[in-house]
Write a structure and sequence with these properties.
globular; Creatine Amidinohydrolase; six-stranded mixed β-sheet; alpha+beta; single chain; Creatine Amidinohydrolase, Chain A, domain 1
């Protein structure tokens, strides 16, 4: 046992680890401004909660430190982000070691900026760093070796150099350098996912606000979806509207119509929308880092019986899953109400993965829990109060090319769940009905 961890003063108390909200009330979607007459998102509370959760998860593990390269984990422990362009660069990293405050190595001048503007951590927490930008600066230059030695020295100072270090993801060459300096590297992503699976009220409000933005986008799509419009036109309009509403990242928008609906291609093209098309969309974007995954299906002008039947079945599968969501239920119970892969045209569960599916939402698009017949039947996990996740179902139509796809985002409360994706989807919406 790590005595330093056991005595750590910054570990949150058990009562601090649960969302502090009355679940008999609706989850608020306040807007984008701060005001003096309502307590809206409390960012100090949010940062304290997230760092406390990370510390608690570290304490519960066999590790003495976490070395983080995943931008979502860096934001979780430090409250910092330097632009969406960083997401795939592997250019920032952070260390949470023993009882010490997090240290963040930032891209160039960002470290100086954070010393000025991020006063929730001491100035010593911000350092300039440079690893290699996904190998464009070769390891032979020595930057990775330099930082590996620097981190190892900090582990010694924290008294945890002899313990395992949880690393989430890094360039292969960086893993080698960490091992060369004597670091006992283990999987740190599982520790961080443990921390991130339960959201506090500030995270839930931000997720709800992000969903409210998508509600508005779907109203716009309902008005704009008509013959002659292309899939990419809808994507462009949605991007514009989301950024105008305050989105900090439109990660992707799936726009799929007509004969492209089955099998599901997970992208968009310049296909022209035609009368009678079935079309579905997925809006993946974030507000203050908190993400949406939110499908809706429409028909253009009119719908036929097989399209209505596919939608009805898709909705039924989704509603059956939502009805089961409450604390204490295991994910295999939910997955079992969804059809087997062979029942809707796929050879096995691997080929059908992601079509009847649940996944956590937070700073990443895919967090815990994951709900799927592929993984949940043999490896179930418990659903807990404070989890936020999306449930999505898919049903191909009997015509061989149309299909329905619906997704709802839910917050697990102490009395069940609240759906926060509110654009109407109980029945098949007909855009610009003839």
């Amino acid at each position: 046992m790590n005595i330093a961890n056991a005595l750590r003063p910054n570990i949150l108390k058990p009562e601090d680890l649960s969302p502090n909200w009355r679940w008999d009330r609706a989850i608020p979607a306040y807007g984008h401004t701060s005001v003096d007459f309502e307590r809206r998102v409390d960012h100090d509370r949010l940062r304290k909660y997230r760092l406390g959760r990370a510390r608690q998860a570290l304490k519960n593990s066999q590790c003495g430190a976490l070395l983080l390269f995943d931008v979502n984990n860096i934001r979780y422990v430090s409250g910092t982000k330097i632009g969406e362009w960083e997401r795939d660069k592997l250019c920032r990293f952070a260390l949470l070691a023993g009882d010490n405050e997090p240290i963040v190595w930032d891209f160039g001048s960002a470290a100086v900026h954070h010393k000025v503007y991020c006063d929730w951590l001491p100035e010593a927490s911000w350092r300039a760093g440079m690893l290699g930008m996904r190998g464009t600066v070769p390891p032979s230059v020595g930057l990775m070796k330099f930082h590996a030695e620097e981190v190892m020295d900090l582990l010694r100072q924290a008294g945890v150099a002899d313990m395992q270090v949880g690393v989430d993801l890094a360039e292969t060459a960086m893993f080698f350098e960490l091992q060369k300096v004597g670091m006992k590297v283990v999987d740190g992503q599982q520790i961080m996912l443990d921390a991130r699976e339960i959201k506090n009220i500030d995270e839930i409000v931000l997720l709800n606000q992000a969903a409210a933005m998508v509600d508005g986008v779907y109203h716009m799509i309902h008005e704009e979806l008509k013959p002659g419009v292309r899939e990419n036109d809808i994507v462009a309009l949605a991007n514009k509207m989301l950024y105008e509403m305050g989105s900090d990242d439109v990660e992707a928008i799936n726009a799929i119509s007509g004969e492209r609906c089955n099998p599901h291609p997970h992208n968009f093209t310049d296909r022209i929308i035609r009368p009678g098309d079935q079309a579905f969309f997925d809006i993946l974007q974030s507000y203050q880092g908190y993400r949406t995954c939110y499908y809706r299906t429409f028909n253009v002008g009119r719908a036929n019986d097989v399209q209505r039947d596919a939608y009805k079945k898709c909705r039924e599968w989704l509603d059956n899953a939502i009805a089961l969501i409450k604390p204490g239920v295991s994910t295999d119970t939910v997955a079992k109400v969804w059809p087997k892969a062979e029942e809707f045209g796929f050879p096995n569960e691997l080929a059908a993965f992601g079509l009847q599916f649940g996944h956590g939402l937070g700073l990443a698009l895919h967090e815990r829990p994951i709900i799927s017949r592929l993984v949940s039947l043999d490896n179930p996990m418990e659903i807990k109060t404070g989890m936020v996740f999306a449930l999505e179902t898919y049903c191909p139509a009997a015509d061989g090319f149309s299909a329905a796809r619906i997704e709802e985002e839910v917050v697990v409360t102490d009395r069940g769940c609240q759906v926060i994706s509110l654009f109407p989807a109980e029945e098949l919406p007909i855009a610009n009905r003839y």
